[in-house]
Fold each of these.
Amino acid sequence: MRLAQWTMACVGVLFFTCAAYGQSDLKASPPAAPPPAKQPDAGSNGLINDLNLESPTLEDVLSALHRADPNFQAVVAREPGVAPDGPTLPALRLKNVTSDQVLRLLSNIRPISYEQIEGQGSPICLVRVQNPAREQGAGEAPMETRVYRLTEAMAGLNATDKPGTPADREAALNQVLSLIKATLAQVEDGSGVSPVVQVHAETRTLIVKGTADQLHAVEEALAAINPNRDVVARQKQLEDRDQQSKREALRIAQMEEQGASNNVEVRQLRDKLNSVEAQLGEMQKVAAEREAEIARLKAMAGQSGKGASQGGAKE
């Protein structure tokens, strides 16, 4: 009986010991960690042996290049209008490539450019993401700034210094400004550039910054309300004719100069031709003299042969 009780006690102690040991193992075991993300495999010769990215962003690609080569540093600069995570990139599955090859690939398939900035430390790669709309020329039209007098335009609205009150002049100034803005609103030059219009009331001048078409529209509007526009137009025609006359005079002078040059060349050719003709005459003269000399020698030879034959006959 005592043996049975002792056996049961040992079994109970063993059971509780195993249970406590199992619980301590369960509490000590940490949760299973997720598998690490696949890092790009970089070789010792500067090549990235394996680059596998599925629908990455530009930052994902640059981070992968940095993990493959810790000395690789990059800064991204996006033009206005580009999405913060743009542009979208295709999946990249590349082997045995360099970071420069990857960047060149991206610049060929997306509006991306890059340059290396050298220095004392590791070089920095500046990656620019361009806006395709700006590449097509939107907002790139050249702009100029011009200043116009408004005195004549205000005179066309019956608001000169005298007669007229300051209120009249201010009203006329506002009317001129309203006309200019309404005119510019109708200009469609495809540049996408908004003109800048400012009025300096003290000097009655208009300052406009815009494209050539916009400035031309402003000039047309001011001329339309200028009471002296006929005089101005006639003066402009005279200036245009004067410029045209000067251009024609310059062209004629150039033609005369060219003609003089041509005359010199003709004289030189004529002199050369005369020299050749003189040389030819001399050669013909010499040839004639030689022919005459040959004929004379032949005649003398013939007479000598005839005399010798007659002398032999007499003997």
Amino acid sequence: MFNDIYYHHPAGNVTSVTITSNIRPATQYRFWILARDTENRTSISPAPIDVITPASTTGDTTPPSAPANLRITAATPTGPTLAWDPATDDVAVTGYNVYFFDGWFTSTLVGTTTGTSLTAPQPTSGTGLRSYYVRAKDAAGNLSIASNQVTPPVTTTPPPPARTCQVTYKTTAEWRGGFVAEVTIANKATTPVNGWSLTVALPGDQQVTSSWNASFTQAGATVTLTDARWNARIPASGSVTVGILGRWTTSNAAPTTFALNGTPLRLTRRARPARPDPPAARSTTHPSPPAARLTTHPSPPAARSTTHPSPPAAQAAVLHLLGPRIEFEGCDEVRPVLDGLAGCSATPRSCWSPWPA
């Protein structure tokens, strides 16, 4: 029983039989009997019978009676709590074995007890089937026939309730060995929070030295911030901000684990403000310049060839020094030189020299 193995044992035309092959001690078996006629047709089997073999062929070979009325009395996170009525034995019942059956052929011993109840673990079953049964035992090692089977109800873990508060942690200033930070608790519920205590798990080696808008205590890496009474009430859709000042040596990493009044909170990181996108380049259409106008100007008159008489050949100037008087002839270019001299006369081409003779 409690396996998927069947044996066929021809017995002949008899009404009793002793079976010794494939029989093990302290094991439960279930038997069916089928009649067969000469044409090899089989009958319907009567109700099967369950047999438990003794642990030994000598000494106490009488097994205890089967525990009755196995039932589930409670469901716990670790497994069901089972209870049953006590078994009897010709000598004494020394305890009970509790088994988990996967519905196919594997039975697993999951607990023993001397009482009549046990909270049994719940192993996983690859078949999706699962049940429990109990056997009584005596001092000689004899086991009873199995009790009735019980199947625990299928339980689904309900999703955690929606978190109605969020926390934001922001380091507002940091320098070698010190820091300042702000912690904001936002109430997203429709009802206010009346009284609050926030625990913060610091991942570095930070030590908080002071706070504002809340009192604080620190035990190891856990800091507890408690309302300042005047801000104990966080209204619906409201928030409260707490500041802390502290020191650090090797790490000032921002915490990620928070709990408000014992309930874990979701951390919302404060993102840096996004830079606005540059304005799209405006396409400015300038009017096309007017097409070049072809202006036809009348051709200038042909250069007139004007014939100037060739200048007379240069003539050497002849100066005659006649005492204080100078006479010249043959070249007008010397006139400007002599025009400034006193007593010059253009007509006679002579002038009085200013120099003494």
